[in-house]
């Protein structure tokens, strides 16, 4: 039997995404309904909500959707360039908001807090970046700085620059962070070497290296938690 398509304007007002948001608030809307608001309209045979459900069914998470390119999105029938750009822009704003929210987590009490600060910044990147959190005596973050940016296979860290920034900011502790775009949480020999090198340099300047985290999209590896620092 051929299914009948009912356009969104023909739905009950309570079921229309825009009206539902106004009447009941944003939290009650599903991911598909929120995306439907972004794209505005579907096609003659498919509502915006159904189109959104089809897109979401093709990815594992919203993070995966946020990594899609314009060309990948317009492969979906009903998504043109303008709609694809709208989706990408909205998800990028969400990512930046998470990065701003992480600033509120200023006092570090666990490796998980470091992950929550840095994952929105480097957890989803296709290349490797090395960052340092500079902490004061109260373990509060006084500076976050990207020290290097590499290709898919790695990056290089300037030890002198790390401690120049530490001394200029008055930091007494450092937490090293870098991402593994491959998703692996196993530290490489290079990871271990730079950690040891920075720790030795820090000890001589009374600036302690407190931890080193490897960060991926959903997980992290802490040198301290694993007992190798």
The structure class reads alpha+beta
Q: What share of residues are in beta strands?
A: 5-15%
Largest β-sheet summary: 5 strands, mixed
What portion of residues is helical?
40-55%
Oligomer: single chain
Principal-axis shape: elongated
Give, in spatial order, the strands making up the sheet with the most strands: 2-1-3-4-5
Rg over CA atoms: 23 Å
Poorly predicted ranges: none
What's the helix count? 9
End-to-end distance: 65 Å
pLDDT averaged residue by residue: 87
SSE arrangement, N to C: HHHHHHHEEHEHEE
Record field, number of beta strands: 5
Summarize the structure.
This protein is of the alpha+beta class.
Secondary-structure map:
Blueprint: H1 17-24, H2 31-39, H3 48-57, H4 62-66, H5 70-73, H6 81-101, H7 111-122, E1 129-135, E2 141-149, H8 159-169, E3 173-179, H9 189-205, E4 208-215, E5 220-222
Parallel strand pairs: 3-4
Antiparallel strand pairs: 1-2, 1-3, 4-5
Helix pairs in contact: 2-3, 6-7
């Amino acid at each position: 039997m051929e299914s009948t398509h009912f356009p969104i304007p023909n739905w009950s007002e309570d079921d229309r995404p825009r009206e539902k948001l106004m009447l009941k608030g944003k939290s009650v809307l599903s991911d598909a309904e929120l995306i439907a608001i972004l794209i505005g309209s579907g096609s003659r045979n498919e509502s915006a909500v159904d189109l959104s459900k089809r897109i979401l069914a093709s990815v594992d998470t919203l993070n995966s959707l946020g990594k899609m390119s314009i060309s990948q999105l317009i492969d979906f029938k009903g998504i043109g360039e303008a709609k694809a750009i709208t989706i990408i822009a909205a998800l990028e704003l969400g990512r930046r908001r998470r990065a701003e929210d992480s600033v509120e987590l200023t006092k570090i009490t666990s490796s998980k807090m470091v992950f929550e600060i840095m994952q929105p910044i480097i957890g989803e990147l296709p290349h490797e970046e090395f960052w340092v959190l500079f902490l004061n005596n109260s373990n509060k973050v006084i500076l976050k700085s990207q020290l290097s940016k590499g290709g898919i296979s790695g990056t290089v860290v300037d030890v002198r620059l790390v401690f120049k920034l530490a001394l200029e900011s008055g930091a007494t502790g450092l937490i090293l962070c870098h991402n593994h775009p491959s998703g692996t949480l196993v530290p490489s020999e290079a990871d271990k070497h730079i950690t040891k090198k920075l720790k030795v340099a820090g000890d001589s300047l009374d600036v302690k290296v407190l931890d080193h985290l490897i960060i991926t999209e959903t997980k992290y590896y802490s040198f301290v938690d694993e007992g190798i620092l």
